[in-house]
TrEMBL record:
Keywords per UniProt: Membrane, Transmembrane, Transmembrane helix, Transport
GO cellular component assignments: membrane
Compartments where found: Membrane
Segments passing through the bilayer: 12-35, 82-102, 122-140, 201-218
A Gene Ontology molecular function term of the record: monoatomic cation transmembrane transporter activity
Record's keyword annotation contains Zinc: no
Protein name: Cation diffusion facilitator family transporter
Domain Cation efflux protein transmembrane positions: 15-225
InterPro entries: Cation_efflux, Cation_efflux_CTD_sf, Cation_efflux_TM, Cation_efflux_TMD_sf, SLC30A9
Family annotation (Pfam families): Cation_efflux
Species assigned in the record: Lentzea fradiae
Superkingdom to which the source organism belongs: Bacteria
Amino acid sequence: MSEQPQTSGESTLTVVLALVVNLAIAITKAIAGVLTGSAAILSEAAHSVADTFTEALLLTALRRSDRPADRRHPFGYGKERYFWSLLAAVSIFASGAVFAFYEGFRTVFGAPEEQTRPLVGYIVLGVAFVLESVSWTQAFRQVRSQSAEHGHSFWDFLRTSDDPTVKTVFLEDSAALIGLLLAVSGLGLHQLTGSSVWDGLASLAIGALLATVAYILARTNRGLLIGRQADPVVVKAIWRRLASEPEVDAVVDVLTMLIGTDRVLLCARLDFDDALTASDLERACVRISAELHTEFPDLDEVFLEPVPRTDPELRRRVLERYGF
């Protein structure tokens, strides 16, 4: 658990940087959208507003999830990070994708619109791309650093990470860069062809992009809220470690659940040597628990349950869970 404060601090820096960048970009895009009459730029302004709300929700997630355990919440508040991150995904869809779809349909199927001051749009979108790149670079560096620490490839870590804040920032910044390219394309094609349909199509593409990101993030946080198991690599290592204990005849079952970022709840059902006395069993459980905490720092709570491996009901439940 010693690495958690450092990781949390880096996540906070990533989120704060993204918030400041998106707030500045949202204002400039909104002004440019009004001056140029571009639906794509207005959609991008809504995109940045959604991202700003998202960062505020992520900061709330970081602050509230770090509270210590208490009587009402004995396993702590780690899952609050997943809840607020889920709201962030909803924010991206509600205030970003929906507005982009509205602007797109209005422009494509409405009366043709004249383009004004396209140069302003190009300048604002170019500056926004530079600023978004700064935020994206910080998020990319954090994902790459954490993936190396956990022994995963970049994309595997992004897919399985239990820290939704950095994943949210990375995906929304990536979507922002792609969205800016779409907006430039719509603005340029409108200028070249004189048809505002291209601007509307770019807005629709931005809406589809935001909806996709919102869906990915919502699905990720839904799984974490329901209760996802720890990294399978860690689970297998714990299983092997328990099986190697001299007092353990067999490992019957290992249950894990993520209860926060870098926090794992472990319940292991073990068939101990029948020759052990009650005091021997107690001392073995205390020692094994301490060794597990030392070897696997992410373990927050460890429960060891002595059970007979031949118990038919327990065996049935284990077989049903793993589909054997």
